[in-house]
Amino acid sequence: MSEELTQRVAELEMRLAFQDDTIEALNDALTAQQATITKLEHSVALLAQRQKELATQMPADAVDAPPPHY
Length: 70
Hints:
By secondary structure, the chain is mainly alpha-helical. The chain is 86% helix and 0% strand.
């Protein structure tokens, strides 16, 4: 192989290694973000259920009653 061809192959190998590292880092970040999203979705579902439970425990007239300063 000529020196120029050897240099080009070496450069392509370096680029490939860098791209592999970048893809791995992006995959790790995406995996972490998905885990966070899953936890947040679960928390929102629990909060919605809790809010629903509290709403059914409140007396109906408490929602429509004017504030005490009126």
